[in-house]
Amino acid sequence: MNADELKRLAELGVATVYEASGREGLIDVPLIQLLPGSRVAGPARTVFCGQDDNLMVHAVIEQIQPGEVLVLSMPEPAPVALVGELLATQVKVRGAAGILVDASVRDVNELIELGLPIWTRFIRARGATKTKIGELNITVTVGGAQIATGDIVVMDADGAVCVRRERADEVLKASEERLAREAALRKKLLAGEISYDLHGLRKLVERKN
Predict the structure, then answer these.
(1) Is pTM, for the whole model, over 0.85?
(2) Helix, strand, coil in percent for the chain, rounding step 5
(3) Virtual CA dihedral for 80, 85, 89, 90, nearest 10 degrees?
(4) What average pLDDT does this structure show over 15-32?
């Protein structure tokens, strides 16, 4: 996908993209959005760290390409800080669009000031070791979603969703179509009609009763 298409996916947002994809790829864990109002969509750059260790986060820095979303995971999610201000500074300098951390971050005030969009499962000061060799650019699982390097990760205030690379164009088109349908529906709702009837839900309830 080109930069304009990725920007459009970010604008369409997690909920629309998730529904339009057939409810596929939801990263189904509570995530803390460090920068309120931030929206990101970009190809994933995946990191599988050793448990409670961020050696591989240091190792991946030189591979990051502009516009990518850095996805950090471990064998078991834990409130251990894989990212702080100094690592995030390097990620921003490399041009990443954002970071998804299935662990903890720290230096939160400094991270907010840095301005790099970050979504994290935890905020804790507990530090990571730097001794365990993990893997880069493999398929990782975050919140039940499998994420491969190059898959598209979309993040906003609703959380995050992953779109498989081969479905990206299809899901973008379906998301635009869904947005158009919702705009037409919104006009009817503003005119006083109700979804109970517009979606045929009354028949379901009355049939049951």
Answers:
(1) yes
(2) 40, 25, 35
(3) -40
(4) 97
